Amino acid sequence: MTQVIYSIGVRFAGGGIGNIAYKAVQGLYQRQMLHRLLCGSRRTTEIPPQKIRSLGFPSRGLRQLALYAHQFTYWHNRLYDLWATRHIERADLFLGWNGFCLHSLQQAKRLGSVTVVERASTHNLYQQAVLAEEYGRFGLPFPNSPNLERALKEYEFADFVLVPSQFAYESFIQQGFPPEKVQLVPFGVDTKRFFPAKEQEKRPFRVLFVGQIGLRKGVVYLLQAWQKLGWRDAELYLVGRVETGNGRVFQPYHNLPGLHWTNHIPNPVSLYQQADVFVFPSLEEGSALVTYEAMACGLPVITTPNAGSVVRHNQEGFIVPIRDPDTLANCLETLRSDQHLRHQMSQAARNRAQQFTWETYQENLCTTLKQCHKNYR
Prior knowledge:
By secondary structure, this protein is α/β, with parallel strands linked by helices. It contains 14 helices and 13 strands.
């Protein structure tokens, strides 16, 4: 049985990638493949404490400071990596998240492990290029990643790179990676937690966006589409924190009719259930979890190829080009005016989401890691 050391420098079983890590480790543990979990900090789960090593307070403190100054991200990731290096043991395979494992990955290789780097987004250089271009369009300085050099070096040392979508996969191939080195495992969703509402209350037509409100997510193009439509009897809910430094980009749209700004909500199930359409016009993602959640709640999804979603054009929703408010507006108009189509896409979205449960993700991940170990040996 392939034994795995799993390393991620964030809060295990926290939000975002911390939750993805939890689902991955849960799958490894259930299949008796987990040798050790290394993490920045952790919440209590069913994973036995003796299987876990966590950095703890220094990780929590530095990550909190990183919310205010990017350089603390660099120092946190470097500290975590050096700490993790001291806890590397002999195992069949080491899986480390990109940006957290430069030295620990090399130590694992020295001890004979097959090494895998997990990247939840597109290739770093693609990500940097598309975001730098977008910031330039709005006359904003682009905050370069302090961990870029370290992250790129990790790919050089890794035997495999793990990505969550075809879009992310292609971004690595474009950088010259051999196809056999890049492994694709889509993320999942809890279809028991995220499900369609049994009854729809009477309310205006409602469009929903969930995520950080910033340039990367393409929210400005959704606002431009909403302005173009000029609806006064419909609602657009933007749910998430406005990214630091991006506020002035959205200022001209603050008073659009029907627009509601809502801060981050830890449990968004009811938001999905009370909406008619989910829109996610992102410029760059690995595979955004919110698109899986929206589909599981039976929402037609309008998104871009760059979101890395499992939505199929004209089936569970519409795939539109990035930076295209006109096409966004047309798709919203279509879904509002055609209730039958909206119902069809709603059912298709729910059915599609049921093919991408966390249990399926766990099975695919464990099978892929076993194959990586077998093939490299």
